[in-house]
Design a protein that fits this description.
Immunoglobulin-like; 4 domains; cadherin binding; transmembrane; Desmocollin-2-like; cell junction; calcium ion binding
Length: 469
């Protein structure tokens, strides 16, 4: 017995793909009444079939019966049926048809649910003799049931980066995939798996998140991994459709390798009094990623440069250390300098117990014959005018800076404008050669200048000095 307000219940069944389905059934009381003439009559708009279902990609032969469309007026009259709308007279045209006499709805061709998941069109019923409509038009709904005919596909780039030596369990990236079959069914329930690289990486089968499986990933051993990812629908069942693709995992660099020297020490010779310039290149090796702070080297002279004779900098192209002489060296003061050069990166070390390294650089100063030096650049002698010739007014001598001796040095005049002075070339003694006149135009502010030259006979080198009279 159906109550006045009707009754609703559900029927569960399996489709050809073994998918569980459910359909709701609505029962209502028969609204037909028996008239005196024995005919049945029904209120208009009461013919109301449930939504019909067809399976997508159904196979031949066609056409196939779907369901009867029956109007209550067919019980009292001879009627015929027509349908129109999308899937019938509108695109996609000709999918459905109806047997005019019986009202049997038929499907005439295979349907792709991913293109048209539902059809809604109109059914109409007419009296065969009068062609008058015996009922109001009825909307017909046909739902297209999904079959698993689409494999899942990857979306987005499969390119990821993770730092070397990351802890096990560190997220590398997420694989994204989609399936255009019906949502909420196993047809679109995707499972993720790795077909390679499983000793190093792990993928969450439900979320597609790839994580590290070890903390031993070393960029300097292998900077890139190619792993094969599979996505399979039907929740990963063997009968599920699948696709595979290659994911690229690049290892990011950390500064786990300090710069190292190619030699254990360096020796370099520098001439005394040598001008500024490059005196040594120090090559460096570093396994970290080139042209990054993990590879770029900074050099420091830790010892031996207390007087500031040197500076060190980095060659930006080769990463070498460049030692420059910036202050001349004096052999007589310093014959040898022992430098200690430290090499470090711009970035701090991490993921390693290694330390920054240093190297000794032995700088030898090469002696040069510098020529004699006068005891003073300028010497002042006081002389009265009209002093007799051959009068000794003083001695202006030079010494060899290496031997501190004056032996073998010769003295000569370079400039004596009035020829008032003569020089003893062996001793450096200065004597009056001609009458000195204080009022002479050669005298400026009471001072007469004589320039002398001291020559080291053995090396033919010389220095100048000035005497003032």
């Amino acid at each position: 017995m159906v109550p006045a307000n009707g009754r609703t219940f559900s029927v569960q069944f399996q489709d050809p793909n073994a998918q569980k389905r459910e359909i709701n059934v609505y029962l209502v009381q028969d609204s037909r009444k028996v008239l005196k003439d024995g005919l049945l009559k029904r209120s208009k708009r009461r013919w109301s079939p449930l939504p019909f279902n067809i399976i997508e990609n159904d196979v031949q032969p066609f056409p196939k019966d779907v369901e009867l469309i029956a109007s209550d007026s067919s019980a009292t009259r001879s009627v015929y049926y027509t349908i129109s709308g999308p899937g019938v007279t509108e695109e996609p045209v000709g999918v459905f048809s109806v047997e005019m006499k019986t009202g049997m709805l038929k499907v005439n061709k295979a349907v792709d649910r991913e293109r048209t998941p539902q059809f809604v069109f109109q059914a109409r019923v007419f009296d065969r003799y009068t062609n008058q409509e015996t009922d109001l038009p009825l909307p017909i709904t046909v739902n297209v049931d999904d079959v698993n005919d689409n494999a899942p596909t990857f979306t987005g780039l499969l390119q990821f980066t993770v730092l070397e030596q990351s802890k096990a369990g560190t997220m590398v990236g997420m694989v994204n995939a989609t399936d255009i079959d019906e949502r909420g069914t196993d047809h679109t329930k995707i499972r993720y798996s790795l077909l390679s690289g499983t000793n190093l990486f792990y993928i969450n089968p439900e979320t597609g998140v790839i994580s590290t499986k070890t903390d031993t990933l070393d960029r300097e051993v292998n900077d890139k991994y190619l792993v094969t990812v599979e996505i399979r629908d039907m929740n990963g069942a063997l009968n599920g459709l699948f696709n595979t693709a290659t994911a690229t995992i690049v290892l990011g660099d950390i500064n786990d390798n300090p710069p190292t020297f190619t030699k254990t020490s360096y020796d370099v010779k520098v001439k005394e009094n040598q001008g500024e310039g490059l005196i040594l290149r120090i090559p460096i090796e570093d396994k970290d990623l080139v042209k990054t702070p993990n590879w770029n080297t900074e050099f420091v002279i830790q010892k031996g440069n207390e007087n500031g004779n040197f500076r060190i900098e980095r060659d930006p192209k080769t990463n070498e250390g460049l030692i420059y002489l910036i202050k001349p060296l004096d052999y007589e003061k310093t014959k040898n300098l022992k430098l200690e050069v430290l090499a470090r990166n711009q970035a701090e070390l991490s993921g390693t117990t290694a330390q920054w390294m240093s190297i000794p650089v032995d700088v030898s100063v090469v002696d040069e014959d510098e020529g004699p030096e006068f005891t003073a650049p300028t010497v002042l002698f006081t002389v009265k005018e009209n002093t007799p010739n051959d009068t000794l007014i003083g001695t202006y001598i030079a010494v060899d800076p290496e031997t501190k001796s004056s032996a073998g040095i010769k003295y000569y005049k370079v400039s004596d404008p009035a020829s008032w002075i003569k020089v003893d070339e062996s001793t450096g003694q200065l004597k009056i050669a001609n009458n000195i006149d204080r009022e002479s135009h050669f005298v400026t502010n009471g001072v007469y200048n004589v320039t002398m030259k001291a020559v080291d006979a053995s090396h033919a080198s010389s220095q100048n000095g000035t005497t003032e009279c």
